[in-house]
Amino acid sequence: MALSKLRPVLVLSESIDYTNKVQDPYFYASRYKNKDDLRRSIKRYLRTVKSKHLRMRLGVFLHNRHVNFLDWYVNEYDIDANRSKIIRDSLDEYMKSTKYNTIKK
């Protein structure tokens, strides 16, 4: 059920390796033999989920002219992108040109 809701799932087992049993980008499995293996597996899973799946959703109000520009830009120049990607890419470029780039994240 969690996978159908696009939630990351970790399956831990002492005996069976489920890594190749389920083909889903949100499915993670690990086999462990002792507490240290278990601890490493959980830490690896949490790092992976944090880097790949945790995103903040943000509602932003834009003026019609901004939305119109984004729609035009996507259709005119960047077929593989969407409005959100254009905004993220623009913010990344702006961040590179400011002092924010030197702040420890």
Walk me through what this model shows.
The chain has 105 residues and is mainly alpha-helical. The chain folds into two domains: 50 residues, no CATH class; 39 residues. The protein is 43% helix and 10% strand. It is built from three helices and two strands, in the order ββααα. It has a two-stranded parallel ribbon with strand order 1-2. The longest helix has 18 residues. It is elongated, with a radius of gyration of 20 Å.
Strand content: 5-15%
Spatially, the strands of the biggest sheet line up as 1-2
Give the termini separation: 34 Å
Helical percent range?
A: 40-55%
Mean pLDDT: 88
- The count of DSSP E runs of length 2 or more, i.e. the number of strands, is 2
Short description:
With 105 residues, the chain is mainly α.
List the helices and strands and how they pair.
Layout: E1 9-13, E2 27-31, H1 35-52, H2 64-76, H3 83-96
Parallel strand pairs: 1-2
Task: Please describe the structure with a list of short key phrases separated by commas or semicolons.
105 residues, mainly alpha, 2 domains, two-stranded parallel sheet, 3 helices
